[in-house]
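Hello support,

Our group uses your service weekly, and this is the first time we've seen a run hang past the timeout. The protein is Membrane-bound metal-dependent hydrolase. I'm not sure whether the cause is the sequence or the server load. Input pasted verbatim:
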Amino acid sequence: MNKKGHVLNAVVLSIGLAVLTYPAGDLTTVRAVLAIAVPVTLGALFPDVDTAFGTHRKTFHNLPVLLLFFVYPIYFGNLQYVWIGVATHYALDLLGSKRGIALFYPFDSGEFDVPVGVSTRSRFAGGVILVVTALELAVAAALVTEYPRRLFEYGLRASGLF
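Update from on-call engineer: The timeout came from a worker crash unrelated to the input. Re-ran successfully.
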């Protein structure tokens, strides 16, 4: 996927995440969009730094890098949403290209892809971006709404109150 596609995905996903977490549509939602969109967009662009040095789709397109961005906020208290951008970059590169990425680099240089990937220059690339973004938002919506409700119900049943 190209930079424009990664930025589009990050911005639309950030708006969706902000609306899911602050659905009132007021100033709090706007602040959430900004608070989420900047780090998610930076994270979505970060893996392509390896085009300047290293090996593209290997050096910064792997699970150890994603893990680093996931745990970084635990220790330093900032960059909470950057890992989301990195993860969405990986999803787009897996689904929005035919080449794939080296998920286990530097331990294994093999590149993983999915058989439905399209070329970044394909006329279907924009559609892939929209489908991937919709799937990401569906997963986020399930995590924000459905799973807490189910956990609550299971807790009530386990305690004998329901």
